[in-house]
């Protein structure tokens, strides 16, 4: 089993922890950092709706809070076929991903596609823009 398949298995297994009593749409994310550590996250909903956090930001926040800001893999599995990150998550990912970060849209261990952040969020605004002022 390659490292991507291993991460997909972790994401699939972790989807049971999704807290999604309002949408009933479960999303799970497993990320691997530059040091090789793995962090997991799920979507966490809220009765007030807007405080909801997506699985991607949940997993990456766990890593960042542990001092890890380099990501080699961001693996996403949701309850729909090909669950892609929402627009907010794409911008969040943009902050920490580079061209080598593999964003994996996973349906199953043998059914996944890999994207870069430039493919998912072309012409993005980033810290590169702020360097110009
Ligand atoms: N959701 C995610 O966790 N990640 C995405 O990329 C898409 C949407 C969650 C948010 C909400 O809890 C549920 O899926 C339905 O939108």
Automatic annotation (TrEMBL):
Residues 2-128 form the CMP/dCMP-type deaminase domain. The keyword Cell cycle does not apply. The active site is at residue 56. Substrate binds at residues 43-49. Its EC number is 3.5.4.5. It comes from the Bacteria. SUPFAM superfamilies: Cytidine deaminase-like (SSF53927). It catalyses: 2'-deoxycytidine + H2O + H(+) = 2'-deoxyuridine + NH4(+); cytidine + H2O + H(+) = uridine + NH4(+). The keyword Hydrolase applies. Zn(2+) binds at residues 54, 86, 89. One of its GO terms (molecular function) is identical protein binding. Its cofactor is Zn(2+). One of its GO terms (biological process) is nucleobase-containing small molecule metabolic process. GO terms for cellular component: cytosol. Pfam families: dCMP_cyt_deam_1. It is an enzyme of class 3 (hydrolase). Keywords: Hydrolase, Metal-binding, Zinc. Belongs to the cytidine and deoxycytidylate deaminase family. This enzyme scavenges exogenous and endogenous cytidine and 2'-deoxycytidine for UMP synthesis. PANTHER family: CYTIDINE DEAMINASE. This is Cytidine deaminase. The lineage of its organism: Bacteria, Bacillati, Bacillota, Tissierellia, Tissierellales.
